[in-house]
Amino acid sequence: MTTPTLPRTQAVRRRPFDRGALLWHGGAAVLLLALLYPVVWVFTSSVKPPQEILSSFDLLPSRPTWEGFRTALEGIADVPTWRFFSNSLILSAGSVIGNVLSCSIAAYAFARLRFRGRGVMFTAMIGTILLPHHLLLIPQYTMFQQAGLVDTFVPLLLGKFLATDAFFVFLMVQFIRNLPQSLDEAALIDGCGHFRIFWHIVLPLLRPALITTAIFTFIWSWNDFFAPLIYLQSPENYPLPLALRLFVDSSSATDYGAMLGMSVLSLLPVIAFFAAFQRLLIEGAATSGLKG
User: Fold this and answer.
1) Which end of the chain, N or C, is surrounded by fewer C-beta atoms within 10 Å?
2) Cα–Cα distance between 76 and 52 in angstroms, integer?
3) Bigger pLDDT: 92 or 129?
4) Is 277 exposed, middle or buried (0-12, 13-18, 19+ CB in 10 A)?
5) Contact by Cβ (8 Å): 157, 98
C-alpha cells in the first residue's frame, strides 16, 4: 500500500476577517489623530508668518519662516530665554530629588515600621489626595508671605522635600509591601538598622517605583503654570510656562509667532525626556502599585 505524497507547497490557511478588530483599530487611529492635531498645529504654526497663524486654516505654512524662534530666543522683558529654561530646570530637578527622597522614606516607614497610629496616619495621608489644591492655597500663601518667601523657589520646592505628594507615597508603599519580609529579617540578624536596610536593600529594589515617580514629577513640574503664577512675581524668576504669558499683551497685538516658538522650545525637553525613559516608565508602572 502506497502512502499519498503531500504536495511541496501547501496553501496557507488564512484567518477569517475580523471586522471588530478593524473597527477598533480604526477608531483608535481616529482618536489618536484628534489628540495629536493640536500638537501638530503648534509645530506647524510656529514656522508660519505671523499674519497666517490665525487667518489661515491650512495646516502647512505657505512660506516657512523662523522669525518666531529668533524672537523667542532673544528673550522678553529684559530677561534672556536661557534664564527661563534654567528656572524650569531648577524647579523640575529640585522637585524630582525632593519627591524621590522624601516619598521613599515615608513609604518605608508606613510599609515596614510598626508604630502607634500608623493606620490612622496612612489613611489621613491618602485622604489628602481628595482635597482640592485650591482649598489649601490661601493658608499656604499666607504662611509663605509672612515668612517672606514669596517670589522665591522655596514655596514651590519645600513641599517636595516633606513628602506632600501622597500619590507617590502610596505608590511606593504598595511596591515595598510586595518585597519579601525575609530580606529585612536577614539584615536585622546581620546587625543592620532601619537606615541601612532602607539604603542598601529596599532602595535598590525600589528602582522601578523611583523611576516612575521621577518621570511624572519632572513632567508635572516642568508644565506647572498655576503654582508659579501664585508665588512668583519677578520675570527673572519665571519658568517657561509663565514666560509664555509675557508674549500675550492685552493692550496691543500679541506676538503669536514668538509665543508658539517658545511653546515648541518648551515642549522639546519633555518629549526628549519621555522618549529616553519611556521603557523605564512602562516597567515601573507594570511592576509597582499602579498595576492594582
Assistant:
1) N
2) 23
3) 92
4) middle
5) yes
Q: How many helices (H) and strands (E) does the chain have?
A: 15, 0
Q: How confident is the model at residue 290 (pLDDT cuts 50, 70, 90)?
A: very low
Residue range(s) defining the domain that contains residue 30: 24-65
pLDDT at 269: 85
- Domain membership of residue 14 (yes or no) is no
Q: What is the pLDDT of residue 263?
A: 87
Sign of CA dihedral 177, 99, 283, 219: positive
Place of cell 509664555: 244
Q: How many CB atoms lie within 10 A of CB 159?
A: 18
**Secondary structure class of 3 (helix, strand, coil):** coil
Higher local confidence (pLDDT), 72 or 231: 231
Q: Using an 8 Å Cβ cutoff, are 171 and 212 in contact?
A: yes
In this prediction the pTM is 0.81
**Cβ atoms of residues 72 and 264 within 8 Å:** no
Q: Which residues pair with 76 in a beta bridge?
A: 79
Alpha carbons 289 and 292: distance in angstroms, whole number: 6
Residue ending a domain, among 9, 42, 65, is 65
